[in-house]
Amino acid sequence: MRKLHLLAATLLCGTLPATGLHAQVASHSENIPGTGNPTSDGTDKYDTATPQKFRAPAPGAPQAPGVNAANLPPIGEIDPATLPAMVPQLSANPAAGDWVAYGRDDSQNRYSPLTQITPENVGKLERAFIYHTGSKPAPGQTNKWAAETTPIKVGRKLFMCSATNDIMALDATNGQQLWRFDAGVKYASIPYTAACKGVVYYTSSTVPEGQHCHTRIVESTLDMRLISVDSEDGKPCEGFGFNGQVNLMQGMGESVPGFVSMTSPPPIVNGVVVINQEVLDGQRRWAPSGVIRGYDAETGKFAWAWDVNNPDDHHQPADGKFYSRGTPNSWATMTGDNELGLVYVPTGNSAADYYSALRTDKENAVSSSIVAIDVKTGSPRWVFQTVHKDVWDYDIGSQPTKLDYKGSNGETVPALLVPTKRGQTFVLDRRTGQPVADYPVEEKPAPSPGVVPGDPRAPTQPWSTAFPRLGFPDLKESDMWGMSPIDQLFCRIKYRRAAYVGEFTPPHIDRPWIEYPGYNGGSDWGSMAYDPTTGVVIANWNNTPMYDQLVTRKQADKLGLMPIDDPNFKPGGGGAEGAGAMADTPYGIVVTPFWDQFTNMMCNKPPYGMIEAIDIHTKKVLWQHPIGTARANGPWGLPTFLPIQIGTPNNGGPIITAGGLVFVAAATDNQIRAIDIKTGKVVWSDVLPGGGQATPMTYEVDGKQYLAIMAGGHHFMMTPVSDQLVVYKLPG
């Protein structure tokens, strides 16, 4: 019997985090060159003596065909001071049975006051209906699909988008499609991922009730369009842009389809639609801009821009000019604050994630930060930085959550909860960006000044000292894991040959370095859920180190790492996650999971995914458990069918209900779960038709509470792709 338990344990450790960590690399073989980093001719170890000019493209460099997807004319400007006052929006105070915004309401806390489904009856949930979006890879197409969609619900309708931006309205009781808007996104425009996290519901301030487009559905697309359609019939709002569309590549300069995209719902704050965009990682230093822009929600006209390297010029670039290139981009879902007139922008780092020598001081000041931008001017009011001079891809992927925090001194502070990939969670005063007094931030010495010539690291990094860390202690050699003693020995050798001095181990050229937490560690785009009635925070997070190495330009060429706009670029040859060309710099980057590539199992011991409850008032962890079973995971990618909670990688967030439940999917075992929020015990689960890498939502119609999850799967997590929205309710 003991041998059987040992066999089960070794199989369980094959809940491959690489399913959630390895993408955009040509194969699963490890391409890290290792000690010496030889160039193609075996000489010139660092390749830094070769004269190179790392310059941005000329101002007149053209955009490739297809970048302006609908061939839209340029949009004009409007003075932000002349924008009409925004009427009250439903998301400010939604009906109890509605879920009006991506995170349910303007606070984006993913909390529902519904109580019908409880720990006692949740086991009776049954499927009410399944809706097919129709968006899946066609035969012969590389799978880039990862829908990540959370529907919104207003009245008796669900509104949602497909992975490729078609917009649908459904009857919330039976899933009947009421209308559909075909966005026409082409496969060539899909960047790293075909994903649409959600749409925005907006009530017009200028179109009277009863007229077309008084209420609207707004979305941003993979091919960089802003679209506004009528919520009643799905037809374009003719007074918005050009037949309901605006070209968001205007002013962006040289680009090709798939280089720049949008996957998150754009917030509308005081009548301004705020636009951010994902710029494909790992391509080149002079990638398209990470500029943040505001547009009039009524007409689609341009209102302002925040261009990091031109912070005082809030206009669109003149003909032949473009926004400053390679600046930190923001791809996460932003949070609006109508009361303060701010939008909270989670930023990443400048293009060429793992090399910072070419970044400007202005870029270094706002990377991997929360930037609070005034929506009437486009100027930042404050900046809070979570990583200094980031070369670990620790961009902020989580949506911030607004809350009213009652401090130990009795003062109620309008606060902002900021999760990060580091597992550090910051609690900020959203008026000033300063840490809330009960949650101080300490600058601690970083482990090393760095070893890359001309690219020193920051001497300190910020740590949130009071909020429980979403993570485990630094790795040790004794933490190495494997199916057998040979596998464990292999991982110990990998550990020894790599540079590792704890978190913020700096990049290396002559050998690999271990990045822990990895770029998919801590909290990512699923963010957290917060119960404002109790102060309980629910967080699911990853424990997944990476194995990185800078490679010379010659070695990058030898490995086939070319940027997406290079004629020799091949899909899977570098980009987004994994290996990248980082053209216009002296180095490329190779990133793999810290794993045994022969068994496809991580080298660190499980669990690889966790979920926990934290009391924000006492700063205590109420419970903590692994999330995800081994049923669909195992060594060599084979499922073990073992239902033990071992903890798998997970992407997608949790929700909380007043009925005492947490609902979460996210894990790579393709299940959705209900967890008793008091005990952390799983009280119900169901196997989904595809991976559940999305955040669920819940709503009520005719006195019945429903639960919805997009089971679209995820190419990055290697979970089964489907086009199915699955909706549950209690019987009767």
TrEMBL record:
Transmembrane helix recorded as keyword: no
Keyword field contains Signal: yes
Bias (Polar residues) ranges: 27-41
UniProt family annotation: Belongs to the bacterial PQQ dehydrogenase family.
SMART domains from the UniProt entry: PQQ (SM00564)
Pfam families, A to Z: PQQ
InterPro entries per UniProt: PQQ_b-propeller_rpt, PQQ_mDH, PQQ_rpt_dom, Quinoprotein_ADH-like_sf
Organism: Endobacter medicaginis
EC number, UniProt record: 1.1.5.2
Biased composition (Low complexity): 56-71
Coiled-coil region(s): none
Ranges where the record places region Disordered: 27-75, 437-464
Signal peptide: 1-23
GO cellular component, one term: membrane
Gene Ontology terms for molecular function: quinone binding; quinoprotein glucose dehydrogenase activity
Cofactor(s) the protein requires to work: pyrroloquinoline quinone
Enzyme class at the top of the EC tree: oxidoreductase
Domain Pyrrolo-quinoline quinone repeat: 99-706
Keywords: Oxidoreductase, Signal
The protein's name: Pyrroloquinoline quinone-dependent dehydrogenase
